[in-house]
Amino acid sequence: MISIDPTDKSPIFEQICKSVCRDIAAGVLRENDRLPSARELAKLLQLNPNTVAKAYSILERDGIIYSMQGKGCFVARHEGKAYEKLTENFRSAVREALDAGASADELIEIIREMSRDN
Fold first, then answer.
1. How many helices (H) and strands (E) in the chain?
2. CATH of residue 38
3. C-alpha–C-alpha distance, residues 43 and 50, integer Å
4. Distance CA 103, CA 112 (A)
């Protein structure tokens, strides 16, 4: 289910995008599954519908979802696009951490800790 973390410093629309990509990569969302409307999801997550619409727009632009006029948004045939987007985000975060002075060993240990938590 699409979720956000209010303590996360990244913009809400990015969190929604990442959450949808994670759900697709994990098989929770499958090709042609209908997503909640922007209004439904906004109400559920107590957000402004424009925030959800922005996330959906980005996901559609990236080929992760598609929309049908009057019917809603659906998971596109992704052929790994959601996984690629997650990997791109991960690489960006790793690059940022390395640039800030983190060592590869520190990052590897963080990944190990996180994988134990799951």
1. 5, 2
2. 1.10.10.10
3. 11
4. 14
In Å, how far from its chain's centre is CA 31?
16
CA-based Rg of the chain, rounded to a whole angstrom?
16
Distance CA 114, CA 102 (A): 17
Q: Tell whether the model's pLDDT for residue 78 goes beyond 70.
A: no
Q: Give the global pTM.
A: 0.69
Nearest one of 43, 40, 45 to 19, comparing CA atoms: 45
Residues 37-64: tens digit of each pLDDT = 999 999 999 999 999 999 999 999 988 8
Query: Which residues of the chain form beta strands (DSSP E)?
Result: 65-68, 72-75
Per the structure, how many domains does the chain have? 1
Q: How many CB atoms lie within 10 A of CB 99?
A: 8
5 in any annotated domain: no
Q: Which domain holds residue 92?
A: 12-117
